[in-house]
Design brief:
elongated, about 325 residues, eight-stranded mixed β-sheet, Rossmann fold, alpha/beta
Length: about 325
């Protein structure tokens, strides 16, 4: 029987109704008690470092989760983490970078309804998360939600209320569940080489800015003084505005001269960026060697920038780390 460490952090799945709205209050043991079948499929130990709404989770908690996994890695065959849905995509991406080359599964799950609601999605999601975590082919960091097994760097919350809340962006589901069975599996174990690598730092000085028509480029002056990295969500495949002057180009150049790391991505949910297509992006890419996200999700770009910044001192070191494929983030 496999041994799994269950790490509960709060979220809707563990919430109870209060006069002020839903609040995480259900313990890790109570979550397990709601799905008795889990204890028949594996041995489970529990730890509950937090009881937080996912809105209040950030890099501090995610680096701590990586530390918990590192310190207990040799004792367990896998890890299941319950987490609120609103920032789960960021959490799964972050753990993909903080724990690399990982042959043991790290599985994120949560729910749109509390586990106290029998007709909700929580019990199914928790059961399927443990089912995946105990599968002999499971490895790496993934989100398991509503029958989908999604690579941690590819998950995005695409529905705010529906049970089918998460989608895999521009990459197939690693697996799907049908009638409580794991089907249509992509075996990733053969792609892992060497030993697991743990990291314990992220640089929170990253901001993402969405370009809108008519935006005043002086917004980048604030970013220049207060950030270490910026993700620019451009138009289409990588369009940067040109309003008869070179103001945006000059601001991006100034950011880079100041040492702020710049990555350009797209606002479009699918198919990624390609700055080389149009003049408005081609000039910036060629002239300033700006990095672009290509098919990466914005959540993965932000998490990877935080990780890359924490482990680099020069622009070249940052670019090397950022360009290194991790967990299907770059295709």
């Amino acid at each position: 029987m496999k041994k799994i460490l269950f790490i509960a952090t709060g979220g809707t799945i563990a919430s109870a109704k209060t006069e002020e709205g839903l609040t995480p209050a259900i313990t890790s043991e109570e979550l397990l008690d709601a799905v008795p079948a889990i204890r028949t499929m594996c041995l489970v130990d529990t730890v509950q470092p937090y009881s937080l709404d996912s809105t209040n989770m950030c890099w501090k908690q995610w680096t701590h989760l990586a530390e918990i996994i590192r310190d207990s890695y040799d004792k367990y065959d896998g890890f299941v983490i319950t987490h609120g849905t609103d920032t789960m995509s960021y959490a799964a991406a972050s753990l993909s970078y903080l724990v690399q080359n990982n042959l043991k599964p790290i599985v994120f799950t949560g729910a749109q309804k509390s586990i106290a609601e029998v007709d909700g999605d929580a019990r199914r999601n928790l059961y399927e998360a443990f089912t995946y975590a105990t599968d002999p082919r499971a490895c790496g960091t993934h989100v398991v939600f509503n029958g989908h097994v999604i690579a941690g760097t590819r998950a995005r919350k695409t529905h705010s209320k529906s049970f089918d809340a998460f989608s895999s962006i521009d990459y197939p589901d690693v697996g799907v569940f049908f009638d409580k069975k794991l089907l249509a599996y992509i075996d990733e174990r053969n792609e892992i080489r060497g030993n697991v690598r743990f990291y314990d730092r992220m640089d929170p000085g990253v901001v993402a800015i969405r370009v809108i028509p008519g935006m005043d480029p002086s917004i980048f002056d604030y970013i220049m003084q207060n950030s270490h990295g910026v993700v620019i969500e451009s138009f289409g495949v990588g369009g940067i505005p040109y309003y008869g002057d070179n103001a945006f180009e000059e601001k991006i150049a100034a950011l880079m001269e100041k040492g702020v790391r710049v990555v350009i991505t797209t606002q479009v949910p699918h198919e990624g960026s390609n700055l080389s297509v149009y003049r408005v992006g081609h000039i910036i890419k060629q002239k300033y060697r700006v990095l672009e996200a290509n098919s990466m999700t914005t959540e993965a770009v932000i998490a990877k920038m935080m990780w890359s910044l924490a482990y680099s001192e020069t622009r070249e070191e940052f670019e090397t780390l950022f360009r290194m494929p991790v967990g299907k983030d770059m295709l």
